[in-house]
Structure formats: C-alpha cells, structure tokens
Amino acid sequence: MDDFHKTRRLPPYVFEQVNRLKAKARAAGADIIDMGMGNPDLPTPQHIVDKLVETVQNPRTHRYSASKGIPGLRKAQAGYYERRFGVKLNPDTQVVATLGSKEGFANMAQAITAPGDVVLVPNPSYPIHAFGFLMAGGSLRSIPATPGPELFEALERAVVHSIPKPIAIILCFPANPTASVADLDFYRDVVAFARKHEIYVLSDLAYSEIYFGDVPPPSILQVEGAMDIAVEFTSLSKTFSMPGWRMGFAVGNERLIAALARVKSYLDYGAFTPIQVAAASALNGSDDCIRETREIYKKRRDVLIDSFGRAGWDIPAPEASMFAWAPIPDQFKHLGSLEFSKLLIEKADVAVAPGIGFGEHGEGFVRIGLVENEQRIRQAARGIRKFFEDAGSNSEELSKSGA
C-alpha cells in the first residue's frame, strides 16, 4: 500500500495501535471501558426509528435517492437553521445533504483543492479536517485550535508567508478534540479577515447542540457577509444519536455548495431514502429529545470531572461537546500520550484517544469521550485510581518504561 501516492501522504493511524491493544485485552477477557471513540451510545429517539420503519415499507423508497438530498430534507435543514440561528437558507442552492459531516468535508476538499493549494487547519484537530485536504493534493499549515489573538496572529503570518496564498481556513467550535468554544465576536473577526483576503472558511458545527452553559454555540453564518465566504457542516450523529445513519449537511456559500454537489453527483446517490425521510422528521420534530440528550451528557461530564478528580486526575470541565480534553498527569507526561493511553488499557481497563492522534500539538493530552453511562464512568475512575496508586509505588520502573 505504501506504493500509492495518496496513501503514502497519510501518516500512520495512531488510533489503530490503541484499537489493537483494546481488542487484544478484550479477547483475553478484560472488561474495557471504551471512552476513546466519539461513538454515541444513546439509542436513536423512537419517533425517528418509527418514521424509518414506516417509510421503508414503501417499495418506491428502495430506488436510487437524490445525491444532494431529497427536497423535504433540505427544506427541513433550512428550517432548523432559521429556528436555531435566525439564518435563512435557500434549500435548492445553499443546502446539500451529506453522508455525515466527514464525507462532506472530504468531498468539499476534492471539489475546491488544486495540487499544492494551502489550507489553514487547526492543530490539534479532528483528522478529516487535515487529511481530507492532504488526500486532495493540498498542503497544510497549522493554526491554533483555540479562539484568541494567537489564532489571528497565525492567520496573518500564513497570508504573508504562504505561497500560494491559502484558499481556506478550517474552524471547529465546539472543538473536537479540545472542546473549546467560540462566540459571535470571534466569528465576526474571522469573516472580516476572510473577506479581506478572499479566503473561504469551512466551519464544522457538529457539536452545536451538545453544550452545558446557558448560551448555545453560534453559527458563523449568523455574521453579516459570512455567506460570501463560508460553508458550515453539521451532523445528526450527536444531536439525535444517529451516528450509524450517516446523515449530515453542508450549508452556506452557493458557489462552494454547487461545487460539492457536483462532485457528489459523480460519487454517490445520497443516503437511502427512508433514512433521509427519517432525518427530515428528526429536524422537523420536537426539541425534547435534544434537551434530554444534552442533559445526559452534562450529567456524565459532571460525574467524570468529579470521580476522576477524586482518583487524582484533575481535568478541566468542558463547556460543550461530548469530550473532555485531559492533560496527562505530571507523573506520566514523560511517556507521551500514546504510551500513556496504552498503559490505561493495560493497567486500568480504560481506553482513551491519545492526543498525538489529532496532530503534534495534541501531545501531552488525551481525549475522553462521554460515551459510557455514569456507573461505567465511576468504574473507570476506580480503575484509574488503583493504577495511579500502583504506579506511585513503582515510579522507578514506570520511568524506565518511558525512557
């Protein structure tokens, strides 16, 4: 496989090492508490499942579907944006349904990237943000993953020193993996910068409904002038606990949306029609299930921060997303995030995602997903406490293992 140009450009998949160790431990009978993958464990709300079952009974829905999404689904997404953000979208020209936000990002990269084009990507970042463009032949330049002066300084440097000039800025707030959040003032500054330098902005808003404070995360499209340069990607995976359904959206700038729709028209016929009908039902329905899901994640977050803290691991409480971005405890920092993650599986029966897997600036952290129930989170904390205590009495041996 190393002989192929595109696969040769991809770095080793760090998470695979953790996954192999996890599978080996499970095969040996270990009860691994898996908080590594952002894979929602909550069932899809029943009314959405019922709509799928009802629709699939009609044989006409078994035929090829629409690549850019059936009209009713695109209208439902436009309706959601108007209710939630006060943003008006034309369902025909500013909305495309995607097979999850991941596919949307990858195909947008294929649509707009010429060989050697420079793209500004957060580091650490969700892998597809970087590797979608890498596979499309682009070149990456890292920017900070948290909103603030450092990010804008990096943007200014990139415009001055990148040849050719960057074509796009990738943003993700609430952020995966760091759980950072951004406000409308931040987006206003980004839009002003992007319009001034004629650079597109691709915003990943997959965690828009998983927030724990009083202020819901905004959309970049709420900013005046954002439609000139921005496309935003959303997903039903987390909002409605529909990860396996593979349903997401790209919305915003008509030129970019048309390019994405054109590429997709050559590659797929869209999701199975009953899935699209059920997705429209989810978007058009009551918000009660969203609030219930948000409350479950909030309780899990609180249990995680409390129980892990009492186990000796102080973790900042995330304001949003379904992740905690946890600094490696001081006594294990020398090991690095990959080796520390392996040790957690071997010694504590807990799986997390090593920060290095999200980019070089993710080193020193691990990402912990809120994808186990409260009882299992407390069980994980007990295993971690025992591991920390045992490691304390064997600190010399642990030091050698990281040498």
Automatic annotation (TrEMBL):
EC number assigned by the record: 2.6.1.-
Residue ranges of every copy of the Aminotransferase class I/classII large domain listed in the record: 31-382
Coiled-coil residue windows: none
SUPFAM superfamilies: PLP-dependent transferases (SSF53383)
Keywords, sorted A to Z: Aminotransferase, Transferase
Cofactor(s) essential for the protein: pyridoxal 5'-phosphate
Family listed: Belongs to the class-I pyridoxal-phosphate-dependent aminotransferase family.
Descriptive protein name: Aminotransferase
Organism: Pseudovibrio ascidiaceicola
